[in-house]
Amino acid sequence: MFDFVFDAAQFGEFLATGLRLSMPLIFAAMGGLLCERAGVFNIALEGQLLLGAFGAALGAHLTGMAGGGVAVALVFGAASGLGLALLGVTLRVNQIVVGIAVILFAIGFTSFMSRVAFEGGGNSLRLDGFRPIDIPILSDIPVIGPVLFAQDLLFYLMLAVVAAIQIVLFRTGLGLSIRAVGESPATADAAGVPVFTLRYGVIVAGSMIASLGGAYIVLSQVFLFSDNMSAGKGFIGLAAIVLGRWNPVLALLACLLFGLFDAFQLRLQFQSPDMPFQVFAALPYVISIMALVGLIGRAQPPAAVGRPYDREMR
Amino acid sequence: MRLVFLFKGVWAVLAALVVGAFLVVLAGADPLAAYGALFSGAFFDYYGLASTLVRMSPLLLAGLAVIVPLRAGLFNIGGEGQIYIGALAGTVAALYLPEALPAALRLPLIVLSGALGGALWALIPALLKAYRGINEIITSLLLSYVAIYLVGAVIHVWLMEPGAPYPYSREVPYDVLLPVFLPRTEAHAGILIALTCAVVLGIVLRRTTLGQSITVVGHNPAAASYAGINVKRLILTSFAIGGAMAGLAGTFEVIGLKYRLFDHFSPGYGLQGIIVAFLASLSPLLAIVAAFFLAGLQAGAGAMQRAVGVDTTMVEALQGLIVLFVAVGLAFRYRPGRTAGKPPAGAPAAAVPETAAKSAEG
User: Fold this and answer.
1) pLDDT tens digits for A273-287?
2) How far is A23 from chain B (nearest CA, A)?
3) What is the C-alpha separation between A270 and B316, in angstroms, rounded?
4) Cα–Cα distance between A258 and A238 in angstroms, integer?
5) Strand, coil or helix: what is B188?
6) CA angle, B91 then B285 then B144, to 5°
7) What is the CA radius of gyration of chain B?
8) How far is CA B172 from the centre of its chain?
9) Out of A11, A18, A290, B249, which could bridge A259 as a Cys pair, Cβ 3.0 to 4.6 Å?
10) How confident is the model at residue A93 (pLDDT cuts 50, 70, 90)?
11) Is residue A307 a part of any domain in this protein?
12) Which of B77, B321, B267 is nearest to A102 (CA)?
């Protein structure tokens, strides 16, 4: 069962698969983490993955370029973020209700629009996605080389996003303001931090990042669109945020853990044709729940998460 | 003035229909013709109406599965999984209860075991919430995927009809099928039980100590605990009731409609239950109306596709728009004598309890 670990080629393949499977989770977790740090619970990640996936398929289909797909995915992500912010921040509707509404809207909207936009439905697409870029010399390193240095553009973009969020949140004045808004918006407001503007910006940025996760599924993994293809990944991303204690690098590691586990259960599926595949396919979801259960100590989210800020309320 | 706010769901539906009309135009058809075919197919045709009622049963029960926990401030978005486990428990009971027992005894046992299956599955996120403070939204949803795979695996290794082209169980015995109450249709007695459940829950939530306790916990768990309410037990109770409703929905799909347990049998009734709950402003009685309407949309979708060639998934987009507009509607509360600021204490029953926001934690 574990002998592949000792074979360099097989182990490298396993790591690469795990990394690919964790990519949508990472984008979702980063987008959600950013929002939660500013005190907004973005439960809509699942829907934003789906909107990103549909946007990517639409853009790539219309322009014939993977870049076009990413652009449209980002537009869809930004639009869903604006909607979330308008309802959850300005109109102060319960953020969870708004998030669930966005998810349900995304499911229905993308199912229908994929049939309108693509002849024969999204399943029949063969999109031009991203191709891996081999970085000279580095990609020749055994095991790690092909895993880390022969990935496509979105992988390097993911690294940049994680690094940027980590640096902005903990090394800049802007990050301090974001975290202050997430802990105590009234105090931040009194100190002159523009609470509403900041939350708007963070939600839109976070939603765009999450939509990249959907774009990755379409443009780097399957090259087509199918109904409800996000398959709970947004919620696994939410679990990764908790597991990573609202820290970008730790959340990234949590996503990698989930991704590697997913790759592992895929191996088990192929190795045990006698067992029903469902036994293994359910494991990633079970593991995400177990990770939350097994979490040692209490995970403390930003204090103001989920509470709309109202200047006239104390 | 108050009436304008009372029927917020109606406004949400109207707004969704208007935006949906643009989607129909986008698909290259005439919106009026499409809606005409949709609604006449759903409500003004004997067989269409029966098919609406058939879909109403799981939608209403799935809606109740969301409403009861949400009254206590908890989001059960895992109704889909509870439907599957309920269906599994019901099917196993139907297939394996000794046939020597009279059907009049086996049928209630099957229905009960289905409800129990759903309730037990719903208790997992409830226990994790009550004793470990783990976010029930994440766990209940992830458990749905586990449940769907679990049911698939059990059908595969245990219940599968020999030689079946794709995974489905053996047929349940004829004597425990639910009777049909509209002749020559599929409208089964499960619909009547679902209606009864809605009425009973409406009374329980409004008129009993349990219902009042749930509402108090939903509005202020700290105060509820101070008043001597066992909050943990109430979390478990509300989830168990919700899960039981979803379990019934699954069981009725088997013994009322399909007579077998199919892999992937539910077209997302669990999530659609959330739409029912929101549209009904968390009232079990209004949920009857909301479920009837949404069921009609789904039942009429085929007629619409045949008449004007718009894909049936148009109805899914319409449902998504409805729930979005319900969320928009929550921003506009009825506040006599107020123009802005915080809602008056004890106000909107339509809105989600205050504590719902707090369940974001952990």
Assistant:
1) 888 999 999 999 999
2) 19
3) 35
4) 12
5) strand
6) 40
7) 21
8) 24
9) A18
10) very high
11) no
12) B321
Beta-carbon pairs below 8 A across chains A and B: 170
Q: Please state, rounded to an integer, the average pLDDT across all residues of chain A.
A: 92
Of A28-42, A124-138, A159-173, which range is least confident?
Answer: A124-138
User: What is the C-alpha to C-alpha distance for residues B134 and B124, in angstroms, rounded to an integer?
Assistant: 11
Q: What is the pTM of this model?
A: 0.93
- Best mutation target among A292, A295, A307, A309 (most B Cβ atoms within 10 Å) is A292
What is the C-alpha to C-alpha distance for residues B167 and B82, in angstroms, rounded to an integer? Answer: 20
CATH classification of the domain holding A216: 1.10.3470
Is any Cβ of chain B less than 8 angstroms from the Cβ of A232? Answer: yes
**CA–CA gap between residue A5 and residue A11 (Å, rounded):** 5
Question: What's the mean pLDDT in A232-253?
Answer: 96
- Each residue's pLDDT tens digit, B289-312: 999 999 999 999 999 999 999 999
A102 inside 8 A of chain B by CB: yes
Q: Which fold has domain B2-336+343-357?
A: ABC transporter involved in vitamin B12 uptake, BtuC (1.10.3470)
The pLDDT value given to residue B298: 96
Instruction: Extract the tokens encoding A311.
Output: 């200047």
DSSP letter string, B40-91: HHHHSSHHHHHHHHHHHHHHHHHHHHHHHHHHTT-----HHHHHHHHHHHHH
Helices B284-308, B269-279: axis angle to 10 degrees equals 120
Residue B228, burial from CB neighbour count under 10 angstroms (0-12, 13-18, 19+): exposed
Hey, are the CB atoms on B362 and A299 less than 8 Å from each other? yes
For B160, phi then psi, to 5°, come to -60, 135
Q: Do A107 and B320 touch (CB under 8 A)?
A: yes
Structure tokens at B74: 């908890």
Q: Where do the structural domains in chain B lie, given as residue ranges?
A: 2-336+343-357
Q: Quote the minimal CA–CA distance from B227 to chain A in Å.
A: 24
Query: What is the arithmetic mean of pLDDT over B75-88?
Result: 97
pLDDT number for residue A206: 98
> Is B361 part of the contact surface with chain A (CB cutoff 8 Å)?
yes
DSSP state of A217: I
List the single best residue of B85, B264, B325, B330 to mutate versus A (max A Cβ within 10 A): B330
| A66: containing domain | 18-294
Please report residues of B whose CB lies closer than 8 A to that of A108: 313, 315-321
Measured in angstroms, the CA of B255 and the nearest CA of chain A are apart by: 24
**CB-CB contact of B294 with B300 (8 Å):** no
Residues of chain B neighbouring A105 (CB-CB closer than 8 A): 320-321, 323-324
The tally of domains found in chain A comes to 1
CA B341/CA B136 separation, integer angstroms: 30
Contacts of B134 in chain A (CB under 8 A): 292-293
- Look at A95 and B360 and tell me if their CB atoms are within 8 Å: yes
Residue-by-residue DSSP string for B274-286: HHHHHHTTT-HHH
> Scanning every residue of chain B, which has its alpha carbon at the shortest distance from the alpha carbon of A115?
B311
From A311, A71, A102, select the one nearest A186 (Cα to Cα): A311
- The answer on pLDDT for B351 being more than 60 is no
**Tell me, what's the ipTM?**
0.93
The alpha carbon of residue A60 is apart from the nearest alpha carbon of chain B, in Å, by 20
Q: Tokens representing A85?
A: 């912010």
Chain A residues with CB under 8 Å of B268 CB are 107
Query: In this complex, is the C-beta atom of A120 within 8 Å of any C-beta atom belonging to chain B?
Result: no
Task: Enumerate the residues of chain A whose CB falls inside 8 A of the CB of residue B359.
Answer: 96, 306
The backbone torsions φ and ψ at residue B98, rounded to the nearest 5 degrees and listed phi first, read -60, 130
What's the rounded mean pLDDT across residues A135-154? 81
